[in-house]
Amino acid sequence: MVSEEELRRRWERTVERLFRERVIRSEAVRRAFLKYPRYLFVQKRYRDYAHVDEPLPIPSGQTISAPHMVAIMLELAELRPGMNVLEVGTGSGWNAALIAELVKTDVYTIERIPELVEFARRNLERAGVKNVHVIPGDGTRGFPPKAPYDRIIVTAGAPKIPEPLLEQLNPGGRLIIPVGGYHLWQDLYVVEKTEDGRIKKKRWGGVAFVPLIGEHGWRE
Predict the structure, then answer these.
(1) Is 191:200 a contact under the CB 8 Å cutoff?
(2) Which value, in Å, is the radius of gyration of the alpha carbons in the chain?
(3) Nearest CA among 52, 14, 43 for reference residue 30
(4) What is the residue-wise DSSP string for 8-48?
(5) What sign results for the dihedral spanned by CA atoms 147, 153, 158, 160?
(6) How do beta strands 107-111 and 85-88 pair?
(7) Is-catalytic flag, 26?
(8) Catalytic one among 3, 26, 60, 65?
(9) Which helix (H) or strand (E) holds 139?
(10) 94 vs 13, 30, 53, 210, 218, CA distance in Å?
(11) Burial classification of residue 35, based on how many CB atoms lie within 10 Å of its CB (0-12 exposed, 13-18 middle, 19 or more buried)
């Protein structure tokens, strides 16, 4: 197992490469990536590989996304301080930590798998993240108590866009969601709700995410 200093050096090189290649486009996302490296959010046996730009396993047969994919979704979301954000699919807690750093306020994230709820909470606590609230439940229903949201980011592939998420989106808000097949492949969509309530969808490109399970997603 490599030292903390070497993990840090490897991670910094990955972030700088993504920045150089314009995958990370904004200074805010670059700073968030440097503040919360991916190796803080994986199991010990995978820490040495956290800088590699590929998905890695996390408990319960799920994955932590590749750094480039997380960067792309955060850049598409155009997060700004003060925004009210819901994440669907907490997983390791890494993406929620990055979101929280970008919006500087409370972030709500829903996870259906109890083992991952605890895994994410431990990771976030160890990383010193105080403004992320991990909520057990069915993310396809959204989280009405804190709605409406300026941004909703979904980290699993849906068969279609869940209606509750559209309902809980603020006018002028934006939803980032993969839509398509159960495992491989999906298209990543940027969905915007106009000020008069109309829905506009823009396809970014092909992606591959674990399935979004729930009442308004895939059945288990």
Answers:
(1) yes
(2) 16
(3) 14
(4) HHHHHHHHHHHHHTTSS-SHHHHHHHHHS-GGGGS-GGGGG
(5) positive
(6) parallel
(7) no
(8) 65
(9) none
(10) 18, 14, 15, 16, 24
(11) middle
SS3 71: helix
For the sheet with 107-111, list strands across it.
Answer: 132-136, 107-111, 85-88, 149-154, 169-180, 186-193, 199-207
Cβ 149 vs Cβ 168: under 8 Å: yes
Instruction: Check whether 170 has a pLDDT greater than 90.
Output: yes
Contact 178, 171 (CB under 8 A): no
Altogether, the residues listed in the chain come to a count of 220
Please check whether residue 168 is in contact with residue 40, taking contact to mean a CB–CB distance below 8 angstroms: no
Strands 169-180 and 132-136: unpaired
Per-residue pLDDT of 138-160, as tens digits, reads: 999 999 999 999 999 999 999 99
pTM, rounded to two decimals: 0.97
Here the tokens at position 190 are 């940027």
Question: Which pLDDT score is estimated for 73?
Answer: 98
